[in-house]
Amino acid sequence: MSLLPNQPKQPNNGPGRTPARCSLKHPNRGFPAWPSGCVFLLLLCSDLAWPVAQPIDGDAVNAPLAKRSLLLDIHGRGEHALAVGEHGHILLTTDNGLGWRQVLPPTRRMLTGVYLVDDRVAWVVGHQSVILKSGDGGETWAKANAETDPEGAYLDVLFLDGQTGFIVGSYGKILFTRDGGENWTMAKQEDDPHFSHITPAPDESLWLCGEFGTVWRSTDRAANWRPCMTPYEGTFFGVIPLAQGGAVVFGLRGNIFRSEDGTEWEQVESSTKALLHAGLVLADGRLLLAAGAGQLLISADAGRTFRLCAIAADNTATVTSLWQAKDGAVLLTSDKGVIRLELADLKTEASK
User: Fold this and answer.
1) In a domain, 6, yes or no
2) Residue-range definition of the domain harbouring residue 76
3) What's the pLDDT tens digit per position in 326-343?
């Protein structure tokens, strides 16, 4: 175990509380109260709120309905993308999401994060601390566990290049590798937030967010982290970095906050109270956020304002992650599988 460099009040067993949430007490370690209809997050965090050791695992099985099952994350390169979700489901497309097929990894655990490093190497993480690696573009997989913790969950994975990668998850865990995953170093925080999302910025900094209004930024590839003081004490599920060093963060109950420089934050008016699961910068520069009940929020002014959109394909789906394919279509994972969305099909309503 290692300590996070330059963090205040670190005990011997890991970094201490960040200033952004040191006044909060959260003895149950679950997420805050659930918005109505948030089936996806209940499933995602069930292992965190009531951990139960489940050491027995096995290979995933062919499932005729896998394409319509709960899928939690998607990532791709060009026409090639991978989507992951419940029961160890991994779906693969090589034609911009027009067609999908299931591949079978050596796990049936819930998979929560996926990252395609290049055309060949891909990583997947999930519950009970499962880590999977593929060297052939997602066709075959092998376990690459860095620790044995059946009560933990990894929630997101990011690689900056073929050698440098990060995994974040429950109970303040941050894992990093500098050798392409041959070795992982863990910085565990015994009483710190579940980390939801880690993402790179255009200026090569890193952003990390999670429970208790936690937003951290690193300008040196995670050698040091600086807490960004936000005015919100709920959970953030995603960060969209901005070009000039700021960011848009979003999470529970439709909450959106924006900062030009990562120090001063303003709340952005939101036309939904649904939980905001994921965000994406489109190729044309617009920002897209995923919400519940078939809702999307779109911004054409770098996150200063958002308009509510409906998903014409299924206005009841809870979108969990977003990716834009090479042909411009947006691929949405949801509690009803993958939805391919043509941008022309977005039906925009006036902001409320």
Assistant:
1) no
2) 37-48+60-343
3) 999 999 999 999 999 988
